[in-house]
């Protein structure tokens, strides 16, 4: 029986997501996007703190780029995450206090998550799965013991 097109999308996305530091890259990219958006805020909102020139646009763009690169090139995640945390901290001076602290915190958190991600780690077993396995173990009879 052929499966529908939507039945295979979710498991495929889960498998893709499990092979990379997904949340770290996503948070870093969102932090960069947020800082870029605060640079385009109205003049009533903008705090003219720091250098508002090229660095104000360059650092959040590098944050966004590092987040996307972490998602699509996880082999180089350590380099991208170190660059990401340094650039995120640099937005404190160049881009409205790091996008009013939100972009700064998203970028630093995402970089730390990407840096700490381990590719060979076993997937975490959910609480429901552990309970289900415990119930099965309680109800099943013990295996016979062989005597040699």
Characteristics:
mainly alpha; 148 residues; single chain
Structure description:
- The chain is elongated, with a radius of gyration of 22 Å.
- The model has no long low-confidence stretch (mean pLDDT 83).
- The chain has helices at 9-18, 22-39, 54-72, 77-94, 96-100, 102-116, 127-139.
- The protein is built from seven helices and no strands.
- Helix 2 runs antiparallel to helix 3 and helix 4 (77-94) runs antiparallel to helix 6.
- With 148 residues, it is mainly α.
Instruction: Name the assembly state.
Output: single chain
Specify the structural class: mainly alpha
Ranges with pLDDT <50 over ≥5 residues?
A: none
Biggest sheet details: none
| Rg (CA only) | 22 Å
Count up the helices: 7
**Bulk shape:** elongated
Layout of SSEs?
Layout: H1 9-18, H2 22-39, H3 54-72, H4 77-94, H5 96-100, H6 102-116, H7 127-139
Helix pairs in contact: 2-3, 2-6, 3-4, 4-6
């Amino acid at each position: 029986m052929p499966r529908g097109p939507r039945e295979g999308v979710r498991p495929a996305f889960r498998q893709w997501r499990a092979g990379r530091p997904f949340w770290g890259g996503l948070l870093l990219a969102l932090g960069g996007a947020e800082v870029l958006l605060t640079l385009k805020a109205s003049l009533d909102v903008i705090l003219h703190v720091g250098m508002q020139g090229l660095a104000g646009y360059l650092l959040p763009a590098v944050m966004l780029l590092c987040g996307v690169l972490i998602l699509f090139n996880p082999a180089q995640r350590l380099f991208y995450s170190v660059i990401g945390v340094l650039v995120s901290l640099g937005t404190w001076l160049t881009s409205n206090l790091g996008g009013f602290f939100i972009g700064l915190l998203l970028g630093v958190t995402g970089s730390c998550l990407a840096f700490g991600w381990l590719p060979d780690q076993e997937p975490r077993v959910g609480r429901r799965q552990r309970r289900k396995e415990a119930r099965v173990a309680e109800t099943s009879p013990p295996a016979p013991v062989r005597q040699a």
